[in-house]
Specification:
This protein is an all-alpha fold. It has one domain. 87% of the residues lie in helices and 0% in strands. The chain has 5 helices and no strands. The longest helix has 28 residues. The protein is flat and about 55 Å long. The model has no long low-confidence stretch (mean pLDDT 84).
């Protein structure tokens, strides 16, 4: 379901504009890569072979294409679908940051690590801002 929604959000953002679509694609990729690595590790830990774990990860990733296809195919009958999906995408990323990432950052007590985390967050914000200038 997660990959399906990612595909739908990417397609919807491209319906709004190409720069917004590129920014959304980069944001999804940046959060999806670590997620897929984690999923792969969980599958390996659960006893799957590397080949089987890769296959299962690949098959679930195909759900993104299905989500994108449904949004693109329905865009003629629902011309504002991209405009509705865009706030959903933004809210999704704000939720991930607020619910998953920020609490983990608060666990760090060493100043050097906290500074590195802050710099990484600022870098991420700058990358996303830079993508809006394209």
């Amino acid at each position: 379901m997660h990959n399906f929604i990612d595909g739908a959000l990417i397609a919807g953002s491209f319906l709004v504009s190409v720069p917004v679509g590129i920014a959304t694609t980069v944001a999804v990729a940046l959060h999806e890569i670590p997620q897929e690595i984690g999923d792969f590790a969980i599958l390996l830990y659960s006893g799957y072979t590397k080949k089987r774990a890769l296959l299962l990860n690949f098959l679930t990733a195909l759900a993104a294409l299905l989500g994108a296809a449904i949004v693109i195919l329905s865009s003629n009958s629902l011309p504002l679908i991209g405009s509705y999906l865009l706030p959903l995408a933004a809210g999704n990323f704000v939720y991930i940051a607020g619910a998953d990432l920020i609490p983990e950052l608060h666990k760090e007590t060493r100043l050097k690590q906290a500074a590195i985390q802050l710099l990484c967050m600022i870098a991420g914000i700058l990358v996303m801002y830079g993508l809006t200038l394209v």
